[in-house]
Amino acid sequence: MFVTHAPQQRFKAFYDCLSNNDTATSSVVSSYILVKLAARCNLACTYCYWFRDKSVLDAPKRLTLEAEDAFITRLGEHIRQHQLKTFFILFHGGEPLLFGAARFEALCAKLRELEAAHGCQLKLAVTTNGVLVDAHWASLLQRWNVGVTVSLDGPRAVNDSRRIGFRGQGSFDAILAGVRQLRAAGVEPGFLSVCEPSSDPRELVRFFAEDLGACDFDVLVPDATHEDTPASIAAFYIGLFDAWWDTWLDRGVRIRLLDTLVRGLLGEESRIESIGFGPNTTSTLATDGAIEPLDVLRTAGDSFTRTRIDVFHNGLQDIQSDPLWREVLQASLTLPKTCQSCQHRMTCGGGHVGQRWSAARRFDNPTVYCEDIKAILAHMSARLFADMTIVAPAGALEAVREAA
């Protein structure tokens, strides 16, 4: 078997949409939106990107009813206009469960009615810290078929040093109580962890796989820009990969970031929002009804993601006329010059677009973690190819000899 990196031409449609003709964005039909149900949180996590932008404190604490109803109307229009068969909605915050159970159920009912009316499958999901999940919340999430991801940073000591309450108290026990409620209701959550570079990666994967019995989770790279000085992540992810590759992969455990990187190193198309070459088309609905680009870009500064587009005056597709949204898309499809000769350019794709930001060069930089990512991928490559056996189909070698 011979594998090669697929060329950038596979995203030709997205390049075409970036022509000088602004109307060309119609070729990128939105099928996903991140909906901010709450602009506040019940935790004060030490690394949270959301509150790095102080302007979020000026937004309504919860998605307003007026914005909610306008969004439902715009979503219906969008589905009809583009004849969509599926659309993905991720409920987010702050802490989205601060929205309230009654309002959440009413919103889900509206969305399911819209789904039935238009014949478009709405895939609903929520990312929560799990602290507010009780039996009632768990039953609501199960009843309305809402996928759940719980944010948990690993074993108690790691989690409680970072995912803390406003009085400095840990959240570990409350999160696990919420996980038990979800499982009791028949909802198996996914898990998101943010890398703590000084922690033991082997203990992290053992905790999720063994103590929690989770077979699918992710370990995110901490949000940072070139205006920050983040700690090195190379040793952590190298250790995480070795533990996964040597022990847990054969037991059916999937770590999303590592799985994606392996696919990229083997020449397959591999792209998630956090890494890999490909278009970033994310849009965000804020609690006041504004439609904005990728929300994590708030790390670039206060009000950085603010636009003049909202669900009261615009369709969901109109965000694609916003200069920042277009700049982010362009950046996600344009490798920085320093990346273009890198052997890992397609697997890494320059890194997360938010982590490419600098005040001097905006997104025209490799990720702030560039040297770390190179070290991680070099280690993974060495391990992968040392363990790889290439089996040629019967007669293939003879055909090669004859051709020579």
UniProtKB/TrEMBL annotation:
<protein>
    <recommendedName>
        <fullName>Radical SAM core domain-containing protein</fullName>
    </recommendedName>
</protein>
<keyword id="KW-0479">Metal-binding</keyword>
<dbReference type="InterPro" id="IPR058240">
    <property type="entry name" value="rSAM_sf"/>
</dbReference>
<dbReference type="GO" id="GO:0016491">
    <property type="term" value="F:oxidoreductase activity"/>
</dbReference>
<keyword id="KW-0949">S-adenosyl-L-methionine</keyword>
<dbReference type="InterPro" id="IPR023867">
    <property type="entry name" value="Sulphatase_maturase_rSAM"/>
</dbReference>
<dbReference type="Pfam" id="PF04055">
    <property type="entry name" value="Radical_SAM"/>
</dbReference>
<keyword id="KW-0411">Iron-sulfur</keyword>
<keyword id="KW-0408">Iron</keyword>
<dbReference type="GO" id="GO:0046872">
    <property type="term" value="F:metal ion binding"/>
</dbReference>
<dbReference type="GO" id="GO:0051536">
    <property type="term" value="F:iron-sulfur cluster binding"/>
</dbReference>
<feature type="domain" description="Radical SAM core">
    <location>
        <begin position="27"/>
        <end position="269"/>
    </location>
</feature>
<dbReference type="InterPro" id="IPR007197">
    <property type="entry name" value="rSAM"/>
</dbReference>
<dbReference type="InterPro" id="IPR013785">
    <property type="entry name" value="Aldolase_TIM"/>
</dbReference>
